[in-house]
Amino acid sequence: MSAFIHIITTRFNVPTENWAQTRAGHTPLTDEWHEHRFELFQKYTFPSFKNQKNKNFVWLVFFDVNTKTKYLQIVRNLQHEFPNFMPVFVRDGGEINAGIVEIFEKYFQKDTQFVISTDIDNDDFLHEDFLDTIQSLYKPVHNLVIDLRRGLQMSLIKRNKVLVNEFYAVANPFVSIIENVTAFKTIMNERHTNFRNYQNVVSYDQKPLFIQLIHSQNLMNATLQTKAFSSINFKEFGIPLEHTPEILIWKTWSHNFKRLPKIFKRLILRQ
Hints:
- By secondary structure, the chain is of the alpha/beta class.
- 28% of the residues lie in helices and 25% in strands.
- It is built from five helices and 13 strands.
- It is globular.
C-alpha cells in the first residue's frame, strides 16, 4: 500500500472578513471569546485528539500571529503535552488559503505518495476510533472522499449540563479527502457540502464518531430536531472524568416530545 500522511487542520482564532458576530450576537476574538473558546478546547477538543487510538497524524492548529502572551502560554503547554498538536501562526484566513499546500509539504516524508486531510472545528470533538476508522478506509486513489456520516450534537444548556442528539448528514463537516501529493489542494479547498458531488466516495455510518458542540458563541450551527439520547459514553470521546457532561433528562424528554408531530406526519405520509 502506498505511503500516506494524515493531516488534520483546525482554525482557532484566525481573523476572517465574514465573521462580525457569533450566532448569539457576541463579538468574536475578544478576551471573553478567547477565555470561553480555550475552555471548550481544553475540556473537549484537545482531550479527544489526545485520546485517539491511532496517533498516526499531524494536527495543524492555526492561530492569529498576534495572539496575546497569556494564550500563547496555553498553546505552548498543549504542544508540550501532545506533540501531534502543531500550532501554526498566520495573519488571517487569506494567508492560510494561499499557503496551505506549502504548509502541508513541510510534513511530507520522501516516501509520502498520498495525503489524507480532515478539517475539525476548534470546539468539536472525536470518538476514540475516528482517525483509525478513516485510515482503515484509506485507498491510494486521488480525490477519494471518506464520509463519516453518523455523529452527535451536544448542546450546552447550562455549564456542563447538556442535551445530546443525533447528527446524520452526507458530506458533513467531518469529511476527509485523499489526494495524490503531486496534485493536492487539501480539504480546506472546498466547502464540505461540495464533497457530495465527488465521483469516488467511501461512506461509514455504523456508529457515531464525532460530536458537534452547540453553544451561544457558534457562528452558524444550531441544534437539530433529531432524536435526543439520555445516555452517552463520553469516555469514548476522550472527555476527562472531571469534565463529564450531565445530560439533562427533562430537556431530553422535552426535545423528543416536540418531535412527535413531525414523526406522526411522516408515518401518515408513508401510508
